[in-house]
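FAQ: What does a ligand-bound record look like?

Like this one, built around 2-acetamido-2-deoxy-beta-D-glucopyranose:
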Amino acid sequence: MFRDLLLSLVSLAGLFAIVFAENAPGWPFDVTTLTAPDNSITAKFVSLGATMTELWVSDKFGSFRDVVLGYDDNTKLLTDPIHPYFNPIVGRYANRIKNGTFSIPITKNAQPDGPNVFHIPTNEHGGLDTLHGGTVGWDRRNWTITAKSATSVTYKHLDPGDEGFPGNVTVFVMHRVENSGILKTTMHASATALTPIMVSQHINLNAFQQGSNDILNHTLRIDGAKVVATDSLQVPTGPLIEVKGTAYDFQEPRQIGSQWNETVGYCGPGCQGYDNCWIYNKNESSAAGVSLWSTLSGIRLDVTTDQRALQFYSGNTVDQPRKAVHGGPALNYTRWSTLVLEQQNYIDAINTPEWGVDEIYGPGRDFEWSSTYNFSVVH
Ligand SMILES: *[C@@H]1O[C@H](CO)[C@@H](O)[C@H](O)[C@H]1NC(C)=O
Ligand SMILES: *[C@@H]1O[C@H](CO)[C@@H](O)[C@H](O)[C@H]1NC(C)=O
Ligand SMILES: *[C@@H]1O[C@H](CO)[C@@H](O)[C@H](O)[C@H]1NC(C)=O
Ligand SMILES: *[C@@H]1O[C@H](CO)[C@@H](O)[C@H](O)[C@H]1NC(C)=O
Ligand SMILES: *[C@@H]1O[C@H](CO)[C@@H](O)[C@H](O)[C@H]1NC(C)=O
Ligand SMILES: *[C@@H]1O[C@H](CO)[C@@H](O)[C@H](O)[C@H]1NC(C)=O
Ligand SMILES: *[C@@H]1O[C@H](CO)[C@@H](O)[C@H](O)[C@H]1NC(C)=O
Ligand SMILES: *[C@@H]1O[C@H](CO)[C@@H](O)[C@H](O)[C@H]1NC(C)=O
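The answer part, i.e. the structure of the complex:
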């Protein structure tokens, strides 16, 4: 209880956060390291947010690289007022919620004073919407390890109706590494009352490769013919846009930067880059939803998932000191130097009943999530 109160205060006041961090420089972070038997992949996690702090895979030269953004000082995961969500689990409801408001059953324009309406702290765009579960989302809660081996770790979190969501949710996440460069993450959540649940893993891949400091030279394929239309806050308006003939179209692999100038406005007014939600074409039996590779490093990633949508964010506002292994701390991670992939469901479907996408879970209906990240080398 006291810890939770402290966490709320910390994230409410950046100034307080700094004072707190200075007063507790050695705040302990329990690091779990998983390595596949064939040494092809090593991943490190901390209990706070069940967050991945490092992910090492081989490049085409046979050198191992840490391919995710992060901090050398893990206390920043708890206190950084910029809060860039470097590789945690985000929930109870990932991505944006219009005006932090929804009703159960869901309705189109839930008004705060309407019946069965819930209002969640609005922590983005000056209080106009909610991002990643509220002021203190699951990424800033300390999860408990329930099982651990050399290749897998399972974390549990009990959310007792935090941030104004209805019902208690118990969530488990298992991270596992396997031979041939595989990272697999699965989640399971159950709730004691009807509540929205849309959990995601917020993977921040980096671009630090020979010859390039941005992601624009990476080749991307997204198996999705539609993106969600959004307003100036990147909150869905209802329609789905056909990607064909637009710079949203990654159905055939192409370099991320190849239609870069056409992306002005895609991530908000005057903003260049992506921060959008693709609806996958695939169904259960189909192949990878996303593929990504760089011919400079030779690292290739194929992601398969049971989720129906993908948020791809090109790090348009990132400006943070880098980890030492990425050349920090004098150099920063800057805009377009990271590619964030979030496997999730239709964003803000709880305010978009016309989609007919049911994101309300409760007794008798548990939430499931599974994604496999397959790293290989291209020459
Ligand atoms: C989270 O919990 C673990 C296990 O109790 C503990 O070792 C660690 O210090 C905690 N981390 C934070 C940030 O509170
Ligand atoms: C957003 O929520 C706030 C707080 O409940 C409310 O005062 C405001 O009217 C809502 N705005 C809209 C546009 O519904
Ligand atoms: C929800 O969690 C709270 C706090 O742990 C507990 O007091 C309460 O009994 C739980 N309610 C249900 C319905 O499980
Ligand atoms: C891609 O890489 C080539 C060669 O390394 C470089 O000349 C070019 O400027 C890069 N393009 C982008 C968009 O980064
Ligand atoms: C993209 O925009 C920049 C800045 O406005 C301009 O210098 C560049 O020529 C444009 N590139 C293309 C391919 O249109
Ligand atoms: C799944 O996708 C494949 C390939 O697009 C298609 O042939 C098949 O009919 C789909 N199955 C279902 C159940 O939608
Ligand atoms: C790096 O980012 C921090 C935090 O945004 C900022 O204060 C600092 O000026 C940046 N450093 C450089 C070299 O741009
Ligand atoms: C991983 O991706 C590589 C390259 O696309 C492929 O050859 C391999 O079969 C994939 N492995 C799994 C387990 O899907």
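Follow-up question: can I read anything off the structure? Yes, for example: Residues 2-12 form the longest helix (11 residues).
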